[in-house]
TrEMBL record:
It comes from Capra hircus (Goat). Signal peptide: none annotated. The chain crosses the membrane at residues 34-57, 102-130, 142-163, 190-212. PANTHER family: LHFPL TETRASPAN SUBFAMILY MEMBER 1 PROTEIN (PTHR12489:SF15), LIPOMA HMGIC FUSION PARTNER-LIKE PROTEIN (PTHR12489). GO terms for cellular component: membrane. It is found in: Membrane. Keywords: Membrane, Transmembrane, Transmembrane helix. This is LHFPL tetraspan subfamily member 1.
């Protein structure tokens, strides 16, 4: 006579796989976590340098003056008796056309686009540390390609920057002897090097690490999990139905 164990066929006793509470699954490998961290660092470094007016240092009327692509610290204005006085404050140019040279206008647009692209990729990479299905192996490589483009744009902006050193406003600050790729009495600031360094790191290091950042495609892992669970259910039912 066959004995049928009804308890093992009830849905409450089937071994349904569940995740442990409080665990946070990541879609990134260990290398991917390092990639996400470096992506955030390079994006913040490049973007911060882009907004700070410390790309170029000089002096005018005995006061220190500094520039970026679209901002300036300390500028001359007409005072009483038509004499020039220096206003010691930092600010951006009143309009895009007020930027001293065409090269700096192009540098502003190109560098800004590169920084925005690096920030977007860095945000997605950080989210990938907390979300399981966000970044696959192929997606990580696509994001690395985007980082390469962003770093290339910022590098292009840094290369365009010296082309604006022959504008009258810059020449007044650099002893009237500056020219394209000739600083005169001025010197490059730390923000220029920081932007260029962040772009180089994004192009070389982050792009390479992104090739190993994502895990294996999720559909393959899902099929394997379903097959294992199906085999487990079959073995359990065979054991229950045995006489």
């Amino acid at each position: 006579m066959t004995t049928f164990c009804t308890w093992c066929c009830e849905s409450t006793h089937l071994p349904i796989p569940t995740e442990k509470p409080g665990t946070m699954r990541s879609s990134l490998t260990l290398v991917g976590t390092l990639w996400a961290f470096l992506s955030l660092v390079t994006a913040v470094a490049s973007s911060t340098s882009y907004f700070l007016p410390y790309w170029l240092f000089g002096s005018q009327l005995g006061k220190p003056v500094s520039f970026s692509t679209f901002r300036r610290c300390n500028y001359p204005v007409r005072g009483e008796g038509q004499s020039l006085i220096m206003v010691e404050e930092c600010g951006r140019y009143a309009s895009f056309s007020a930027i001293p040279s065409l090269a700096w206008q192009m540098c502003t647009v190109v560098t800004g686009a590169g920084c925005a692209l690096l920030l977007l990729v860095a945000l997605a990479a950080v989210l990938g540390c907390c979300m399981e299905e966000l970044i696959s192996r192929m997606m990580g490589r696509c994001m690395g390609a985007a980082q390469f483009v962003g770093g290339l744009l910022i590098s292009s902006g840094c290369a365009l920057y010296p082309l604006g050193w022959n504008s009258p406003e810059i020449m007044q600050t650099c002893g009237n002897v500056s020219n394209q790729f000739q600083l005169g009495t001025c010197r490059l600031g730390w923000a220029y090097y920081c932007a260029g360094g962040g772009a180089a790191a994004a192009m070389l290091i982050c792009t390479w690490l992104s090739c190993f950042a994502g895990r294996n495609p999720k559909p393959v892992m899902l099929v394997e999990s379903i097959m294992r669970n199906t085999n487990s259910y079959t073995m359990e039912l065979d054991h229950c139905l045995k006489p």
